[in-house]
Amino acid sequence: MITLEQLEQMVSGQYQTIVSEISSLDNSLLNYKSAPESWSILECLEHLNRYSRYYNPALAKAITKHTSNNSAPGISYSWLGKKSLEMVRPQNGKKHKTVKHMNPANSQLSTATITEFLEHLQDLENLLRSAKTANLNKKVIPVEFFKLLKMRIGETLEFIVTHQERHLQQALRVKQEAVLVTS
């Protein structure tokens, strides 16, 4: 079972990865695509920005509303949470089609995408800190693409961090390929 502290450490590591590995790249590397249907580094980050624009405010509202002195000691999982996490784990090499409005393919993006993502990471770190007093097992976060389904606060936090890890690894693979091709 993962803890909020471990998720915080992962988000901190993701922030450092962006700062050290991606933020200083030039536009040609940031926009490099190995094939027309693949994503560039900026498209990977924009995809995550789109998720953060939805989930960060939903989590903030839920955490504020469901704070208590006797919060659950850890994250427990619903069938939906387990399924969602399994799908986005970086070790799961299977590609998944993203819903259309979350697909940034062929977007006009700039380094503002990186700046926005770093801001979302800072927001997420704050959410993880404030979640320490929340009922993590409260099922109140509507799933972005089908709002009738709800996930628990804790599993949603883990989903967001894990999903980010998956696409950051993808962005780093794109960077590696771009550097080889352009050098």
UniProtKB/TrEMBL annotation:
Residue stretches making up the DinB-like domain:
20-171
Coiled coil where?
A: none
Q: Which domain of life is it from?
A: Bacteria
Which Gene3D superfamilies does the UniProt entry name for this protein?
dinb family like domain (1.20.120.450)
Where does the UniProt annotation place the signal sequence? none
Protein name (Swiss-Prot/TrEMBL)? DinB family protein
